[in-house]
Amino acid sequence: MTLCAVEVMRRDNILTFAVLCVFHAWTLGVDSKMVHLRQPGLNSPKPLDMVPYSVDDMYNGCTEQMYNKVRKEYLPNENRNVGIFNKSWKQAEGCATNVKNRFQKDKSKYNSKDKLTHDHIKAICAYTGGQTKMYPEFNEAVRINRLKYTTSFQFHSLHFLLTDAIRLLKLNQQTCHTTYRRTNMEFGGEVNQLIRFGFFASSSFLKNLTHFGEKSCFEIKTCFGADLMSYPVMGDKEKEVLIPPFEMFKITKKENGQKVFNCETLYKLESVGLQSNLNCKAV
After folding, report:
1. Domain segments of the chain: what residues?
2. CB–CB of 152/228 below 8 Å?
């Protein structure tokens, strides 16, 4: 017999029963969260790790098959759902259509050798923002939905098109890039630890984009992230380099970054390869 049932029989008081039941349920909820070792407390640093539940498909060996499936199945289906992807995808059309104008405005050369299709460019536009900010919801889904990838994952089209856009751009960007990422979150990680971002991580060639955060910052040597040039909504204003979920890094240094970056903590990361647990699982 539960605590709530005993209290009803003893006092015959409905109000007391209700209060005790609500309190009992609330404390159970708190206890459940407290024993979940991977859930940080409210004031605890978010751990830097390998993000084991990431949707980290890199489509190695199945690019053509996946692109066909995106065009014929995933994209039509995801566009039929009235949600944030549908809205963002529609809003991205103008950005994708006017891409050459952005390159001209930025005084940079539009490179036809990049081989990005209209859909690739549209995916970059949708991700980098318009009227509907999709990237927080999208990146959270990418970070945690490994177990839903072959069933109810809702962003197959955008995930593939961004991954493939990075691949195509890297064909003409043979060198590694040193970039910077700022956040307003506190992270916990140690030197020599291997980590992944586990989502599509935006970074920049610029050090001074302080509006993105001054809590934890990253200096990143990425060998698989791609310079987006003037493809994003804002052109090359933020000098964005997009890092895929499956790139692995080693923490080579952790220091106070106030002197150079105006950041509480600076992590220096160096690319050490790739890890994909879901390669070609959605084809």
Report:
1. 47-274
2. no
Q: Do 198 and 228 touch, CB atoms closer than 8 A?
A: no
Asked if pLDDT for residue 162 goes beyond 80, the answer is yes
Whether 30 has a pLDDT exceeding 90, the answer reads no
Q: Are 229 and 110 in contact (CB under 8 A)?
A: no
Find the range with the poorest average confidence among 124-133, 185-194, 207-216.
Answer: 124-133
Q: Which CATH number fits domain 47-274: 3.90.176.10, 3.90.190.10, 3.40.50.261, 3.30.70.2750?
A: 3.90.176.10
Q: For tokens 């006017």, what's the residue?
A: 98
Tokens linked to 51? 């993000």
Residue 110: partners with Cβ closer than 8 Å, 6 or more residues away: 99, 100, 103, 104, 230
Mind listing the pLDDT tens digit for each residue in 265-277?
A: 999 999 999 999 9
Reduced to 3 states (helix: H, G, I; strand: E, B; else coil), residue 202 is: strand
Which of residues 123 and 108 earns the better pLDDT score?
123
pTM over 0.85: no
Q: Could you tell me which residues come within 8 angstroms of residue 193 by beta carbon, excluding any fewer than 6 positions away?
A: 48, 49, 250, 251
Helix then strand then coil, in percent of the chain rounded to 5, is: 40, 20, 40
